[in-house]
Structure formats: C-alpha cells, structure tokens
Design brief:
The protein has 14 helices and 20 strands. The chain is an alpha/beta fold and 483 residues long. The protein has 2 domains: 153 residues, Leucine Aminopeptidase, subunit E, domain 1; 313 residues, 3-Layer(aba) Sandwich (Aminopeptidase). Helix 3 runs parallel beside helix 4, helix 7 packs antiparallel against helix 9 and helix 11 crosses helix 14.
C-alpha cells in the first residue's frame, strides 16, 4: 500500500475518490473543497446521508474538482468520536471503496474531528478491514486500493504514526494468515518454519524437538502430541532490543485440536485449526517489534503440537510429570491447551522474566461467558493486569477480569496425582486459569483466554469473517506501556 501525505486542498487532489468524514447532523464541507461541493452537499437529504456512525454514501464529484468521486462518511455523535470510531470508519470506508472498484483514495482531514493523529487510527482500521484470505481460491480478488493520500501538513508525528500503524496492521494480517491456513499446511513444523523465517540480526529462534522436550521432562506438553504423526515443535524466539529482564509471551499453539480421545463433536470441528491463534499473535507481535526495532526485551514461547486420537494417544486417567516435577492426572484430553502451557510456564522461569503473559484459545466456557466481545483475564499480579486493562481499552481488544479464588484449587484436587487437568463444568473458565497459576508460581503472570474472540463468524468494520488476529495489537500496546 502506498500511503503519502500531501498538504494540498481536497479539490486539487487527483484521485478516484475523496473521503469526507462528517459528524452526525453537521454535513458541511471545509472551505478548501470549493463552492461546487458545498452546493452538492446542500442537495443531500437526511434520509440519504446524515452522518450516522459508519454510514457511507458514494457520489460523483463535481466536474470542477480533481477527485472523481466523493465518499461521504459518517462518524456519529461528536462526543463519542475517539480512536475506535475512527478505526471503524476507516475499515468501513476503504472496504466500501474497494468493492466499488476504487484504486486511489484521498482523505480530507480538515473535516476529521480530534487531533492531527486521528488519521493514524483511520488508516489502522482501513488496512485491517482490507484483509482477504484467498490463497486457495482459483479466482482471486483483483480489486484493490493501491494508494491513500492524507491531506495534511507533513507532521513528523503523523508520518511516524502511519509507519508504525502500517507495520502493526501487517503483523495482524500475518497472524490472521497463520490462523486461517488449513491444518494440513499449518502443522507444528510449518509453524516452526514461520518462526524461523522471523529470525535474523535482532531475533534468535530455537526449536526444541521431541527428544529435547523429553530430556527436559516436559511430560504434560508431550502427552498432547502422542496421538499425532506430526512431530511437536517447542518454539522459542527472543528479541533483545534492551538489556532489561525479558517480558515472556506464551502462545497456545495447538495447530489442530480434535479433543484427542475425549473427541469433540463434529459440528464446527473444521474451525479447530484456530487453536494456535495465541501462538500466531505472539509471532505477529515479534514481527512488528523487530521491524520497528523497539527498545524492549521479548521472549516468545510456542509449545506447538496437534491433538489427535491416534493409537498411541494419551488416555483419560493417565498421569504425566511436568517439567517442574508436578504430576498431573489427565481427566479430559480435550483440556490439552493447559497441559502445553504448564510446561511452557515452567520453561519460562529459566529466563528470570519480569513478567509472563500467556494468550490462548483455552476454554469453550470463555466463549459462552462473553461471546465474541471480550477476552477473559486472570492473573497473580495487579500491576501487570492493570496495564493490560489500559491497553485493552485503548486498542478495543477488551478484557474482563475473572476471579482466581483459592477455593478453585479444590476443584482440581486429584486422588492419584498432585493435580488434575480439569475441574468439571462448573467454574471451568476460572479453574483453567487456576490450573495454570500452579505453574506460574510467584512469577508475575497474567492469562488471556481468547477462545471467543480469535475467530469471528461475521464481517465487522475492520475484522473480516475468519481469524481476527486478536492479541497482536493488544500485546504491542502492553509492551509500549511497560518499556
């Protein structure tokens, strides 16, 4: 995408379409658009366009100005306009223009409320909303927007913000590609390949094989992989842009989850390729951080495996020993994500991190509780969780804190081992995190359950149907606040 900034009047910008954002009920153009545009807008009735949030109307432009068309874009009520409204406006506007076959677009900033950086959020939503996944379609989408011109003074803060947002949007789309890929092409080996491709001067990548995990005593992680012919890959990436103790990000990376011998129902089973969305988010984050060369120290851990019901698969009732020595009775093999994360949390401690955040499509209970509207958050450190909340509100990847009462430990009490991997249906969202807390120990830690938000069944303003890429933008903002 070619994005440029030009300090010229909208009427003098040669483009296929000029976007004119308006506050609801205030359909008045800026003076630089000329009398002909003002006359055109006076003819628009409120029934045609009133400026309601995400309302669009595409019109032929007057002959005496250079844009070919005008896209009237509603921002809604003035007092409610903020970064999220602008993101949604960007996603709605650019997707609408692409459908209309528009290739070159300009945005008239004088009509945009807010500060000089409002265009950054508009571009963020626009780039995210233009995402498509057509790798396996014979007929590809040929319509694309190739150029966006921002009509503004060439402010350094604006150009820097646009550059950051381009990288971040690209990282989100990278994560979406990984999650949308079918599981026959996104195996643990392929996921390791995607991680290795990020390696370079600033990013080191290590892939532990089965024998390495066995030597380390990762019995919980390896138990998940036993039913699959695909070898597990325990992936570790390190970006060292600072000498500070690292922030460790652990992403659940089950590239296909059948449930194992505790097999899932067939309805919706094809979507279980998305069970590595946490790992994809971590890879996307590291991609963005390394491209922008942020002064942070990040370690990403992806315990990648499949969970299948093969002849050698782990059985309900089996007992395994984790890297830290704790034994786990496996009651349900479909509660596999927490087994992989248990050993990842144990492995993370060797780096003496200042904090650990895990992100995982962990429980169906999360989706039942929040639908597709929020991420469940639990943890043992108030300051870490407060930073997460602030970031979540800002990027609109909302989190909702759930309790980790001591009583939940009783739900996980095993008759034959130190702990069992599931506490039953009641309280299952909280008990899944309580299980993980046993392995986090005293390390400052937070858990993000993205089971309800990693996949969307319908198009949203800047999130097309399919993998949402959630977590990349959230983790990126968390890191910037923590550095």
């Amino acid at each position: 995408m070619n994005i440029q900034i030009k300090n010229i009047p909208g009427k003098d910008c040669a483009c296929d379409a000029l976007i004119l954002p308006f506050i609801e009920g205030q359909i008045k153009p800026s003076k630089d658009l000329g009398a002909s545009v003002a006359a055109l807008l006076r003819k628009i009735s409120p029934d045609e366009f009133s400026g309601k949030k995400n309302e669009v109307l595409l019109l032929p432009a007057p002959a005496d100005i250079k844009p070919g068309r005008l896209l009237l874009l509603g921002l809604g009520e003035k007092e409610k306009i903020g970064p999220e409204v602008l993101r949604q406006a960007g996603g709605k506007a650019l997707a609408h223009l692409r459908t209309a076959g528009i290739r070159e677009v300009a945005l008239s900033l004088p009509a945009t409320p807010g500060n000089d950086l409002s265009a950054v959020y508009f571009i963020e939503g626009g780039l995210l909303g233009l995402y498509t996944y057509d790798l396996y379609k014979t007929e590809k989408e040929t319509r694309e927007i190739r150029k966006i011109t921002l009509l503004s003074k060439p402010l350094k803060a604006l150009s820097d913000g646009i550059r950051t947002m381009e990288v971040l949007a690209s990282a989100v789309c990278f994560a979406r590609d990984l999650v949308n890929a079918p599981s026959n092409t996104m195996t643990p080996t392929h996921l390791a390949g995607a991680a290795l491709a990020l390696g370079g001067k600033d990013v080191s990548v290590t892939v532990l094989e089965r024998k390495d995990a066995e030597k380390l005593g990762m019995g919980a992680y390896l138990s998940v992989s036993k039913g699959s012919d695909e070898p597990p890959k325990f992936i570790v990436l390190e970006y060292r842009g600072s000498k500070k103790d690292p922030l460790i990000l652990i992403g659940k990376s089950v590239t296909f989850d059948s449930g194992g011998l505790s097999i899932k129902p067939s309805d919706g089973l094809e979507k279980m390729k998305y069970d590595m969305a946490g790992g994809a988010a971590v890879l996307g984050l590291i991609r963005a951080v390394s491209l922008l060369r942020l002064p942070v120290h990040i370690i990403g851990i992806l315990p990648a495996t499949e969970n299948l019901p093969g002849g050698s698969a782990t059985r309900p009732g089996d007992v395994v020993r984790t890297l830290g020595g704790m034994t786990v009775e496996i009651i349900n093999t479909d509660a596999e994500g927490r087994l992989t994360l248990a050993d990842a949390l144990g492995y993370a401690k060797r780096f003496k991190p200042h904090a650990v955040i895990d992100i995982a499509t962990l429980t169906g209970a999360c989706a039942i509780a929040f639908g597709g509207e929020a991420v469940a958050m639990m943890g043992n450190n108030r300051s870490v969780m407060e930073v997460i909340k602030e970031s979540a509100d800002f990027v609109n990847e909302r989190v909702w804190e759930m309790p980790l009462f001591d009583e939940y430990r009783e739900y996980l009490k095993s008759d034959v081992a130190d702990i069992k991997n599931i506490g039953g249906r009641t309280g299952s969202l909280a008990t899944s995190a309580k299980f993980l807390s046993e392995f986090a120990g005293d390390t400052p830690w937070a858990h993000l359950d993205i089971a309800g938000t990693a996949w969307t069944e319908k198009d949203k303003p800047y999130t097309p149907k399919g993998a949402s890429g959630i977590g990349v933008r959230l983790l990126f903002d968390i890191i910037r606040r923590m550095q």
